[in-house]
Write a structure and sequence with these properties.
Its EC number is 2.3.2.6. This is Leucyl/phenylalanyl-tRNA--protein transferase. By secondary structure, the protein is of the alpha+beta class. It contains 7 helices and 11 strands. It has 2 domains: about 55 residues, Leucyl/phenylalanyl-tRNA-protein transferase, N-terminal domain (Alpha-Beta Plaits, 2-Layer Sandwich), CATH 3.30.70; about 150 residues, Aminopeptidase (3-Layer(aba) Sandwich), CATH 3.40.630.70.
């Protein structure tokens, strides 16, 4: 497979239909805000390891979650009822993305959230496109997740937990809040059993792009900082 090599920032990403069977679309370029915006607005995301060039992906099929179809496991309901954790938004973004990078994942050798990713998404966060949801136990940050928002479209990126159920709690509260804000679709990227338990499902890439474009064109209020959802 001869992937498209991005040689300059002015060179656009190729059409998503040009991706290979695994979903890889292009190699190279930099994680500038303009390139990231172009990528996400087309349904493309970066995923690569340290000491490698940036790799751009658009898999088929695509795992998504419709906020109205969120499934809450029975074990989580007592925790939600007694408000086991406090959930905030955008109060400690860099701490969340760095903790996501530190999580050991049995199915991965190392982390894809390398320092270049941390710096790029932190800069994009300051421009209002990337958001963190944080779970607190007292004054301690114990879980959370982050992702990208364009219009009424949210692209989930990664999560972490330092106490049992903390990331699940933040995710449930975050998705419930997103639904009240008008989010229509959450991109979960790759299929995992963990996300399927929340109600995520697979749709074709073509259907994903269609629904994504529709959601991106919906205007909803900006997300700033909330001490509690």
């Amino acid at each position: 497979m001869n992937w498209v090599i991005l040689k300059s920032e002015s060179q656009p990403l190729p059409p998503v239909e040009a991706a290979d069977d695994e979903g890889m679309l292009a190699i190279g370029g930099e994680l500038t805000p303009s390139r990231l915006y172009e990528a996400y607005s087309k349904g493309v995301f970066p995923w690569y390891s340290e000491d490698m060039p940036v790799m751009w992906w658009c898999p088929d099929p695509r795992m998504v979650l419709y906020p109205s179809k969120l499934k809450v496991q029975k074990s989580m309901r007592p925790l939600l009822n007694k408000k086991e954790f406090r959930v905030s938004m955008n109060t400690v973004f860099e701490a969340v993305i760095r903790k996501c990078a530190e999580v050991e994942r049995p199915d991965q050798d190392g982390t894809w959230i390398i320092d270049e990713i941390v710096q790029a998404y932190t800069a994009w966060h300051k421009l209002g496109f990337v958001h963190s949801f944080e779970a607190w136990k007292g004054e301690r940050l114990v879980g959370g997740f982050y992702g990208v928002r364009i219009g009424a479209m949210f692209y989930g990126e990664s999560m972490f937990a330092e106490l049992p159920n903390a990331s699940k709690y933040a995710f449930i509260r975050g998705v419930n809040w997103m639904e009240t804000q008008g989010i229509q679709l959450i991109d979960c990227q790759m299929e995992t059993e963990h996300l399927k338990r929340f109600g995520a499902e697979l749709i074709s890439r073509s259907e994903f792009i269609l629904q994504m474009k529709r959601a991106q064109n919906v205007e909803i209020p900006n997300w700033t900082e909330l001490e509690e959802l």
